[in-house]
Design goal:
Elements lengths: L10 H4 L3 H13 L4 H7 L4 H4 L3 E2 L7 E2 L21 H35 L11 H10 L5 E4 L2 E4 L2 H17 L6 H5 L3 H10 L6 H11 L8 H31 L5 E5 L9 E7 L2 H11 L2 H9 L5 E6 H11 L3 E3 L4 H6 L3 E6 L7 H6 L5 E4 L15 E3 L7 H14 L15 E5 L3 H9 L7 H8 L5 E5 L11 H12 L2 E5 L1 H9 L7 H5 L2 H10 L4 E3 L6 H14 L11 E5 L5 H11 L4 E4 L9 H15 L3 E3 L3 H19 L12 H6 L2
Parallel strand pairs: 6-7, 6-9, 7-8, 9-10, 10-11, 13-14, 13-16, 14-15, 16-17, 17-18
Antiparallel strand pairs: 1-2, 3-4, 5-12
Helix pairs in contact: 5-7, 5-10, 5-11, 5-25, 5-26, 6-7, 6-11, 10-11, 11-24, 11-25, 12-14, 12-17, 20-27
């Protein structure tokens, strides 16, 4: 019997982005398979997507589909061991939290280890760049930053502070007693008390992840509410622990981001230059690659090979790390990694960890591209075979040596291009690199840097509220459409958007990360604020570990006053319109249990267990102030967030716009 012909994806239906549409069509013309074509040929399992397939022992997999007519009365579905749909869905859900928390927190541990090497001066490649942030982080970790000398308090030796900070940070992963330090020192006091009351303050990062794996083993925890209690501990350990430590330590080592101009989309690649694409999530190697690629020695070497220079660009969160500190342009999102190679201009792609498709090895072998894996825990089977895939294990103690080797491989490969180069012309200007510190500066300058101005504009109604819109791409929906439509609808309704990860890149590609976009896309209130302050309506806050910046920005809003005593009181909402990875579930959950109403798109791995889903969609608001929600349609998705923001405005008594009053000097002197 003849094999059934494989379907090809419709490029326009597959992606919202014109550059991606062109590359999908080119791949099909060249007979190169991409994720878009695979999605057209492989349908997802509806039972697994609903969260009610259990494969935690070899008696399974036990598949519990929803009855065609839905659940009426008691849900009688059970696995072989008797586990109910609620138990199975809760186990699967918190295993996703464990996977996501592991990814971000192991990233953080790696950064902490490099930070320790830098603090002890065991590597020349890394040094402390931001001592102001070091002192702030040291204080949050309980490290003394001053000492008494001759009866006066003076600052301690910065090298000693750095070593003790590194030791305290690393201890957060596996300490034998106590609780997560940032939970108390960084979170609003009311939020910490909520966690304490519910018994979910993390003990350390690793323990909470390990305990999830134990509890979800067959025959252990079989109560969905108790399972979610542990999932909550692990999510907090991620958001207010591993991820937040990763962000803080990266800022100390590589510099705290401030706004920088760059560009985004496949059009940033250049035909006459060596194109080195950096993809993954850890900035430890990529920081050194940027430094090496900018040396005159490497630029001259590239010119010897006939190139006009070296063009670096980034994909996924490594791209976000590079753009926010160095202005290195963004090549694309998660779903564009194969497409960057299909341009025929990618001389090398260097990858580290997370969100790296194994198929880019197969695509690289169809072109001249050298694909280089660099992390000991993230290799590909193709790097054992002859071809374009190789492994160069990165060592922070020999960082410059390893980075130089990688850059030279890219340069040497420039002359080996074998396919016609086709780089789409699409690219957009962007302003990236916002953070808690830079937002504070933009709002008040050096004279009065604080979040008071933001709060003032939320209270007077010019800004309706704030939304954190984050997350991956998903080939089960149209690439970038959910991201763009949700964000455009929010800013049209005067909601300021904070973004990270692939949503940030999608918004960058659409031109939403420029101050000028406010006049085109925003409601009158937000447009006025953006014009006055000189900021985009969508603020790029970095990579997916940098979601901690959004949490800290929310904490600063609470601290500035006038909008309640906790994050749960604020007119804010969260969203992941095209989520894909386990990291997104961990991120979503730590936002929920921090008091943020959070909406996901595409699919929800709880839909197969209605009782369990109702628990995290509704009951969680009573426990933590935040709750989950789900909406596929991007416009409805945005309006669910807006409705929640309006509900919070009404509860605060600021649901009606207030005009500012011009005060004379006597009025100001009368203020308390």
């Amino acid at each position: 019997m003849a094999e059934k012909a494989k379907k090809l994806a419709d490029p326009v239906a597959a992606s919202y982005d014109v550059a991606s549409q062109k590359m999908i069509k080119r791949a099909q013309d060249l007979g190169v398979e991409t994720v878009f074509d695979r999605a057209a040929n492989m349908k997802p399992c509806s039972i697994g997507a609903g969260g009610t397939c259990c494969k935690n022992c070899s008696m399974g997999p036990c598949r519990l589909p929803l009855p065609k007519g839905g659940i009426e009365g008691k849900d009688e579905r059970k696995g072989l061991c008797g586990a109910t749909a609620n138990t199975i869905a809760a186990r699967n859900f918190i295993r996703m939290i464990a996977g996501g928390a592991s990814a971000h927190s192991d990233h953080g541990r790696g950064v902490a280890e490099v930070f320790m090497a830098a603090a002890k001066k065991k590597t020349e490649a890394y040094k402390i760049k931001d001592t102001t942030k070091l002192l702030a982080v040291a204080a949050d970790l309980g490290i003394a930053t001053t000492e008494e000398v001759d009866g006066e308090q003076v600052q301690r030796n910065i090298d000693e502070i750095a070593v003790e900070t590194a030791e305290a940070a690393l201890n957060e992963w596996g300490k034998s007693e106590g609780e997560l330090l940032y939970a108390k020192s960084k979170a609003p006091a009311a939020l910490y008390e909520t966690w304490k009351k519910n018994g979910v303050v993390p003990r350390n990062i690793d323990r909470e992840i390990v305990e999830i794996m134990h509890r979800t083993h067959i025959g252990v925890d079989q109560n969905y509410q108790n399972l979610m209690k542990q999932g909550t501990r692990a999510a907090i350990a991620d958001g207010w622990g591993g991820s937040m430590l990763a962000t803080d330590l990266q800022d100390i080592l590589f510099g705290t981001p401030y706004p920088v101009a760059s560009e985004a989309n496949l059009g940033v690649m250049k035909k006459d230059m060596v194109n080195l694409v950096i993809h993954g999530h850890e900035p430890i190697l990529s920081e050194i690659i940027v430094a090496v690629a900018q040396t005159q020695e490497m630029i001259d070497y590239a010119k010897e090979k006939g190139a006009n220079g070296i063009q670096l660009s980034g994909i996924c969160c490594t791209g976000n790390e590079l753009v926010q500190r160095h202005g290195v342009p963004l090549c694309g999102t998660f779903l564009q990694q194969e497409l960057a190679i299909i341009t025929g201009a990618c001389d090398a792609m260097v990858v580290d960890i997370q969100c790296i498709m194994q198929n880019i090895a197969n695509v690289a072998n169809c072109f001249h591209t050298k694909l280089i894996t660099t992390h000991p825990i993230a290799r590909m089977e193709q790097d054992l075979e002859p071809g374009n895939v190789s492994h160069i294990e990165f060592d922070e103690h020999h960082a410059v040596r390893d980075a130089t080797r990688i850059v030279k491989i890219a340069i040497d490969n420039f002359t080996n291009r074998k396919a016609e180069v086709m780089i789409p012309e699409e690219k957009s200007p962007i302003i990236a690199g916002f953070g808690v510190e830079s937002i504070e500066y933009h709002l008040g300058g050096t004279f009065r840097g604080s979040y008071f101005t933001l709060n003032d504009n939320i209270i007077n109604g010019r800004i309706r509220g704030v939304a954190g819109v984050v997350g991956c791409n998903n080939a089960r929906t149209r690439h970038n459409e959910g991201h763009i439509e949700v964000v455009k609808e929010l800013i049209k309704n005067d909601v300021l958007v904070l973004t990270t990860g692939c949503n940030a890149i999608a918004c960058a590609m659409e031109g939403l990360l420029t101050p000028e976009s406010a006049a085109v896309y925003c409601g009158p209130g937000l447009a006025e604020v953006c014009e006055t302050v000189g900021i985009p309506p969508v603020l790029h806050l970095g990579s997916c570990v940098d979601n901690s910046r959004i949490l800290l920005a929310a904490a600063e809003v609470v601290k500035a006053g006038g909008l309640g005593n906790d994050i749960r009181d604020l007119p804010v909402a969260g969203s992941a319109p095209e989520w894909m990875s386990e990291k997104a579930i961990s991120i979503g959950h730590y936002f929920v249990v921090s008091g943020v109403y959070t909406v996901f798109g595409v699919t929800m791995p709880t839909s197969g267990a209605p009782v369990f889903q109702d628990y995290i969609f509704n009951e969680y608001e009573k426990l933590y102030g935040g709750m989950w929600d789900f909406e596929i349609d991007p416009i409805k998705h945005a309006h669910k967030m807006i409705a929640h923001i309006d509900k919070k405005r009404k509860a605060l008594g600021i649901d009606k716009a207030r005009e500012r009053v011009l005060m004379d000097m006597s009025d100001r002197q009368a203020l308390d």
